């Protein structure tokens, strides 16, 4: 159960959809499914067992899998740095950390400078080292701009590796970004400037410094998993979700996880991405049933509470509290945990909403999935309006 106040929530209508008192009604055309379940009850609703395109609601499913497989919300990725001082070699042993951002490079160079290293003769990294090119580190609290939500996870190559560490090649924007990161992390006592030159760089299949005498090993740990998951869900960052999903085991792994632990493997037979984006050539949409979605959200909330003393608010958006962009969920009184999902490409579209809200009779976990052809969605959009409802 999530820690939230009970109050009046402004529910957003898609078409002529109204959500109130745990019941759902739809109009406006298109194939729809809606359902809800209370903490100890059975799933109820309209078409709860009909497969629907999840779009970004899938990120909640990816969040659940990550929490379960990685060992909980406090998990940290550990990237190891091998340094051979005698010949100026440095190797990065990656951990498939999908949230290794450029500002982590700033911290790493700063630490190397503190060790007296400002020049690397040969820099290597293995193929498990990923670099997110567009997003800032969650640990220092920057708001992620809408422009960044589709930034790239880089399967790093030698040229990118060298450029990332070679400060003399940085353009002014990179230098200003470092100054911003330094100001926002005053407690870290970062130097006014950092300096590094790299003569050669390469991506290698194995660690060339393993077992060599005189090699020093350091560890770069990520922020706790929960911070990244919450940021991923608030800003709906597709590359993060897809890389995380892939690193956990991909489609087959997700299916096996649900079957082995919850007997729900069949529910995931058409899950292809962690973000909910479709695969093309031919088009394959990630689908699950509304029933499966709300049961997983409920299980995630209960597991967080029972195992870690946390709840959904620690990994997902709280309406009226965490909203970064747009007016959609500016209100919510802390009573609504929500994830939206929208697909607009191709002949079919999806406008979805899933999450949980707090009532005086207990927590309710819900899913609302409007699936329609583009022309029908365009027509129903003219019916969109705000409706205030009491969820007491």
Characterization of this structure:
By secondary structure, the chain is an alpha+beta fold. It folds into 2 domains: 8-74 and 226-390, DD-peptidase/beta-lactamase superfamily (Beta-lactamase, 3-Layer(aba) Sandwich); 78-223, D-Ala-D-Ala carboxypeptidase C, peptidase S13 (D-tyrosyl-trna(Tyr) Deacylase, Chain: A), CATH 3.50.80.20. The protein is built from 9 helices and 19 strands. The strands form 6 sheets. Strands 5-4-18-17-16-15 form a 6-stranded antiparallel β-sheet. Strands 12-9-8-7-13 form a 5-stranded mixed β-sheet, with helices on one face. Helix 1 (58-70) packs antiparallel against helix 5, helix 1 (58-70) runs parallel beside helix 8 (290-308) and helix 6 (238-248) crosses helix 7. The longest helix is centred in the last third of the chain and has 19 residues, at 290-308. It is elongated. The chain starts with 7 loop residues before the first strand and ends with a strand.
């Amino acid at each position: 159960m999530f820690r939230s106040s009970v109050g009046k929530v402004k529910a957003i209508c898609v078409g002529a959809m109204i959500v109130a008192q745990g019941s759902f009604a739809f109009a406006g055309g298109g194939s729809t499914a809606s359902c809800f379940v209370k903490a100890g009850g059975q799933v109820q609703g309209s078409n709860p067992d009909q497969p629907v395109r999840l779009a970004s609601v899938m990120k909640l499913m990816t969040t659940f899998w990550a929490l379960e497989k990685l060992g909980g919300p406090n998990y940290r990725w550990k990237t190891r740095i091998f340094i051979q001082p005698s010949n100026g070699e440095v190797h990065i042993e990656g951990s498939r950390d999908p949230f290794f951002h450029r500002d982590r490079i700033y911290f790493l160079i700063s630490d190397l400078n503190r060790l007296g290293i400002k020049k690397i003769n040969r820099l290597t990294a293995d193929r498990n080292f990923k670099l997110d090119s567009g997003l800032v580190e969650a640990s220092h609290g920057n708001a992620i701009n809408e422009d960044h939500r589709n930034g790239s996870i880089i399967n790093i190559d030698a040229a990118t590796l060298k450029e990332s560490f070679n400060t003399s090649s940085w353009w002014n924007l990179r230098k200003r970004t470092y100054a911003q990161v330094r100001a926002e992390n005053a407690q870290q006592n970062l130097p006014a400037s950092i300096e590094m030159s790299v003569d050669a760089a390469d991506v290698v299949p194995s660690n060339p410094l393993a077992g060599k005498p005189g090699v020093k090993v350091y560890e770069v740990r990520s922020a706790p998993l929960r911070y990244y998951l919450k940021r991923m869900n608030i800003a709906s960052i597709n590359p993060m979700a897809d890389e995380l999903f892939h690193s956990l085991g991909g489609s087959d792994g997700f299916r096996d996880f649900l079957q082995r632990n919850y007997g729900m493997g069949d529910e995931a037979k058409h899950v292809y991405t962690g973000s909910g984006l479709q695969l093309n050539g031919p088009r394959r949409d990630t689908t699950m049933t509304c029933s499966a979605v709300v049961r997983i959200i409920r299980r995630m909330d209960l597991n967080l509470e029972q195992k870690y003393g946390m709840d959904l608010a620690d990994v997902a958006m709280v309406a009226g509290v965490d909203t970064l962009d747009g007016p959609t969920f500016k209100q919510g009184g802390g009573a609504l945990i929500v994830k939206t999902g929208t697909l607009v490409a191709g002949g079919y579209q999806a406008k979805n909403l899933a999450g949980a809200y707090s009532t005086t009779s207990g927590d309710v976990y819900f899913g609302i999935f409007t699936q329609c052809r583009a022309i029908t969605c365009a027509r129903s959009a003219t019916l969109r309006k705000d409706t205030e409802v009491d969820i007491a």
